[in-house]
Write a structure and sequence with these properties.
single chain; alpha+beta; Uridine Diphospho-n-acetylenolpyruvylglucosamine Reductase, domain 3; Enolase-like, domain 1; 3 domains; 3-stranded parallel beta sheet; globular; binds flavin-adenine dinucleotide
């Protein structure tokens, strides 16, 4: 591979580098677990790599606890998430999703921002964050910020809504308002480790004292070009008593999730298999 590298350690350096390269071919590099693979299949001659892995700005690297939100800097790694007691307590779905990413070695490099910006339908942390109704904070080269829900930020396979002069700065997750949680991440792959999903399901139900669902977030991975938020499945669950769910309720929930699945058959699984698995794991989360 043949390209120039610009190392950025501050926000200003990053914005200047992006501004200066608007007329050239450049890529942002964070943990490189996806990028290195992607660059193998692309011509890199004349390309500039803007490296953000050494950024020191806290808004890019920290997990910040605010009153209504938890904010993840784009460079927070899967390991940082796994090791955060706050995330484990408040967002078990994200803890489990981060833990399901490959191996410890990959998790130590794989950033949450890279997982989102790579825009793979099977990105595990992105899936959990869609279910958590996370929003992206995007920064442009002029230093202006815009906010966009993650569910619309990923627009297709390998595509986000980022303009050429923009970078993902952080991801903000609304904190829980319910008294109890049922929250988790189900992933089916061909093997248990080092494997991207064939199908995944992220769910985060907030319950009141009596066990009734007061807020729901559900997303499904690897079954559509993006990671859909299963709105009608969420609507179906709000107001339901989780302990009193009937078999028909579970089936209806799974049918609602399935509405969002438009999978393809590929080398890892057929369309039929993906739909079957999604239906079954959607029902099974309540057993
Ligand atoms: C062996 C192996 C196993 C894997 N297993 C899994 C798995 O089980 N589950 C899973 O979800 N993923 C898996 N992955 C994929 C990968 O580790 C993740 O997607 C990772 O989170 C990407 O983050 P990164 O920091 O490495 O991104 P990079 O590779 O540095 O970047 C990825 C893309 O995002 C862009 N980008 C990065 N940061 C920003 C930013 N702040 N603003 C704008 N663009 C940005 C880059 O330009 C590039 O296009 C695996 C990868 C490997 C190599």
């Amino acid at each position: 591979m043949d390209f120039d590298v610009i190392n950025t350690t501050t926000k200003d350096e990053l914005l200047t580098a992006i501004e200066d390269h608007q007329d050239t071919n450049f890529r942002i590099g964070a943990g490189y677990t996806d990028l290195i693979m992607n660059l193998r299949f692309q011509p890199t001659e004349g390309m500039t790599l803007i490296n953000i892995a050494q950024m020191k700005d806290p808004s890019f690297i920290s997990i910040e606890e605010q009153q209504d939100h938890i904010v993840l800097g784009t460079l927070v790694t899967a390991s940082n998430i796994v090791n955060s007691p706050l995330i484990k307590l408040e967002f078990p779905v994200l803890h489990e999703a981060a833990l399901s990413v490959a191996s410890t070695q990959i998790r130590n490099s794989a950033t949450v921002g890279g997982n989102i910006c790579n825009a793979s339908p099977s990105a595990d942390m992105a899936g959990a964050l869609v279910a958590l109704k996370a929003v992206c904070c995007v920064l442009n080269s002029k230093g202006e910020e815009r906010i966009e829900p993650l569910a619309s930020f990923i627009v297709g396979v390998g595509k986000t809504s980022l303009d050429k002069n923009e970078v993902l700065k952080s991801i903000s997750i609304p904190r829980n308002s319910g008294d109890q949680l049922k929250s988790g991440f189900e992933k089916v792959g061909t093997r248990n480790s080092m494997e991207i999903s064939i199908v995944s399901l992220a769910y985060h139900f907030q319950l009141d004292e009596s066990g009734k669902v007061v807020d729901a977030g559900v997303s499904c991975g690897a079954v559509a070009p993006t990671i859909p938020f299963a709105e009608s499945a969420c609507d179906f669950m709000v107001g339901k008593d989780l302990d009193g769910l009937s078999e028909t309720d579970k089936e209806e929930f799974a049918e609602n999730v399935l509405k969002y699945a438009t999978p393809i058959s590929d080398i890892r699984a057929s369309e039929w298999y993906r739909k079957e698995v999604l239906f079954n794991i959607s029902q099974a989360i309540f057993d």
